[in-house]
Design a protein that fits this description.
- The chain is of the alpha/beta class and about 400 residues long.
- The chain folds into 3 domains: about 120 residues, HprK N-terminal domain-like (Udp-n-acetylmuramoylalanyl-d-glutamate--2,6- Diaminopimelate Ligase, Chain: A, domain 1); about 140 residues, 2-Layer Sandwich (Alpha-Beta Plaits), CATH 3.30.70.270; about 90 residues, Arc Repressor Mutant, subunit A (Orthogonal Bundle), CATH 1.10.10.2840.
- It has 16 helices and 13 strands.
- Strands 8, 9, 10, 11, 12 and 13 form a 6-stranded mixed β-sheet that branches. The protein has a 5-stranded mixed β-sheet with strand order 2-7-6-5-4, with helices on both faces. The chain has a two-stranded antiparallel sheet with strand order 1-3.
- Helix 3 links the parallel strand 5 and strand 6.
- It is elongated and about 90 Å long.
Length: about 400
Amino acid sequence: MSVKLSELLRQLNKGDMKLVAGKDGMSRDIEWVHMVDTPEIAGFLAGGELAFTTGLGITDHMSLFDLVKSIYDRHGSGIVINLGPYIQTIPKEVLDFGDQKAFPIFEVQWKVHMADIMRICAYTITEQTKKETELSSAFHYAFVFPKNVDMYRQFLMMHSYRQNADYLVAEIAVWDRVENENGEYHYSPAPPNRMEIFLREAGHYAMDETIGRFVFCEANKLMLIFYDADTDNANAVVSSVREAIRYYFKNKECTVTSIGKKVSFMEDLSSSFQMAEKVERLGRYQDRTEDIISYEDLGVYQLLFMINDKNSLRDYCRKNIDVLIEYDKLHKSDLTDITRRYLECSGSIQTIADEKFIHRNTVTYRIHKAEEILSADLSIEKDRLALQMAFLVHDVLTSAEL
């Protein structure tokens, strides 16, 4: 949780701190304050801190420039320099560095008590953290307990979220994606310490209280709340966040990204969230780690997601494609995949042959074999439509079990 540096400055007496360099970095997030008088102390920074220094540790072997650079290298968000007996003026090379790196540098006169400034900064950050934690809880309750409006409605309205407004929930799920010996992928959720990094970065792009846009973390998922926003805007923001966090990926980390349906009432936030969850599971099942999958673009899947009678859906699969799936399991064949691709590419034998690196005749034989097992004729539109629908139903049912 953090506060924009520009917002933090508004909480202070403007005469106390003077910005002297790095004005282009005023949108940086501040997560805490830290007294840093030597590069060794800078080594303890975790990133996102506003550093304060009196210059007490500056020697012939360590200049102010060295100190400022060490704080920047540790991903600090800015520095406040106390002018006085240890630092009379800030060297030009330090100011140039701040401007070049968009790294804010402030000066404070010796008569100003830096402890008071640090206390105000710490209080502001703490209050912001409290607010964001409470908002996260309120949205969580809206997702999970939509009928218990007393758990979230009053608090959200207190923070300018209207009851009758358009809401949209998106989620970016972060997974470790590992391929097994059979070429199948297994997804393991990213651990909390990794999600802290991703949440911090996501906040730079997604958090905007002035328009009600909010982001928080639930397990291995970044939850993005859009208020009075259209789907195109949501897609753009989600895309920016996803690209930003990918910069920090390690090993096999990947994202499955989904956007739920737009709803028009606060009490329906749960519907948008649940649809984003279903879409994410579908994307994971289909191994769509490079896409942003929006409910609006799902076509027939939208209808299937609305069907609560899962037994009827299972019966539909059982009558249409289960026999082919079981045949493949027993004979270690790929007739199910071949048949699905045949339907998806409008019956193009050559397309499948090129994708599978097999002869056209082999594809034709396997299609005929599948027709025999299914007791279907893929030249008949009714049979093709029944199988296409069955494959989509199978996707929905299988992804729901993830």
